[in-house]
Amino acid sequence: MTRASLPDHTPTGLLIGGRWTDAEGELPVQDPATLETLAVVGDASVDEALTAVAAAAEAFPAWAARPARERAEILRSAFDLMTAEIEDCARLIVLENGKAWNDAMAEARYAADFLRWFSEEAVRIEGGFRDAPAGDKTIITDHRPVGVAYLITPWNFPAAMATRKLAPALAAGCTTVLKPAEATPLTALWIAEVLRRAGAPDGTVNVVTTSKPGPVSEAVLADPQVATLSFTGSTPVGKQLLAQTAQRVLTASMELGGNAPFLVLEGADVEAAVAGAMVAKMRNGGAACTAANRFYVHASVADAFTDRFRTALSKLRVGPGIDRTNDLGAMVSLEERDKIAGLLDTAAAQGAEVAACTTAPEAGAFIAPHLVTGVEHGSVLTRNEVFGPVAPIVVFEEQDEAIRMANDTDAGLIAYVYGPDPGTGIAVARQLESGMVGIDRGLISDAAAPFGGMKESGIGRAGGFHGIHEFLETRYLGVGL
Ligand code: NAP
Questions:
Q1: Ligand 1 atom nearest residue 154's Cα
Q2: Which domain holds residue 153?
């Protein structure tokens, strides 16, 4: 695959101050389905990243002062453009991330939705005006954009994680420097170009692709012109970045790793639970922070659930996402595939029954969907975020025990519950230590809903009414009227 076969409007340089520029270095981007080089993008140095920060800082006062309606209309135009060219976005996602075509289309639509949602939110930032309880003053509150926002995104949702940060930041009046994942920079570059074409002024959106995320991020976060960090990625890297933001007392929004439990309670509709499990587990080939990572199934429905789940998994076609008939694409890299295979080997060594449900191509970063039974809570697959098409099943007898096992983790991003009725599902959901719970649903991500985790899964909320506030500072004016 060559540069020529990428969709139109796919830049490969750095976006700094509204201009696409060549970087000092070069960074090849691989198609994990073919292991061929797709394109070569810029490999930014620390100095180039700091130039992007300077461009964002220069653009900030004018952008912050723009009427909210104008900011909204640029985001809305970007939504319209992205929607008109949605297949280009999906194609890029497939090519550099490896996921199946339908997953890529769903991600592209979800990503575009953040542009629309925050174009709507830009004009609805509320302030307050009230009497102080002591009657001595009036309390006025308003919200100001914090300034330059540094945005770091992972490879698993290269489009949605970019727009989930860019859209609220721009809606709030912040300017941005985006650092996408090294494995999947092309989608982010394409989105930045969408925003540029939609009228985002020079310097409001800057993108630096780099193979040196540590040094680049350390320098950017130390730059006094940077006001906030929004990070989505693994918990260890998030902790490292929090230590750096602490040095300058920066606000930081952290969307980190998950370890989602999927509970199937006594009396649950098994067919519905399997349908939900297929979505919660297999969307994105399991490479989602929201992916169901461990299944706790009541003994009374365990056999029926396991059999039907196996049957559903065995029907999946595994192969390159560019072939739209495939249901499960490639993992993002051979390293990621091998990491998953290693976890399966450990599970087998621990006594679990590991079974592939179908076959996967030998060449490329493919792995077949696996069902793992005889799993003990506390064993390797329940302790690690597998990030692949692997479904370990733990059988339980008592509901309280299932809740205890579900909560027995440092992560707290999302959980799923299938119960006999919604009331039971809600009652159990309220006992789960998790920022989000899907009740009788395997997919709840929505640009209009607050996305985020408890415990070590993060700080802050993306999307919904909350997302824009990650980029706003609340200001209080005490007035002696
Ligand atoms: P990762 O290794 O933490 O990387 C995430 C981003 O951080 C990438 O852009 C990466 O750049 C960058 N990075 C790596 N080391 C860094 C450092 N020392 N300083 C600054 N930036 C650094 O995570 P990943 O493997 O790409 O993504 C998978 C993880 O993301 C999973 O744990 C998943 O659960 C989590 N995730 C969470 C959410 C959520 O909303 N909670 C959503 C999606 C994914 P390079 O690519 O160059 O390494």
A1: 26
A2: 14-256+457-480
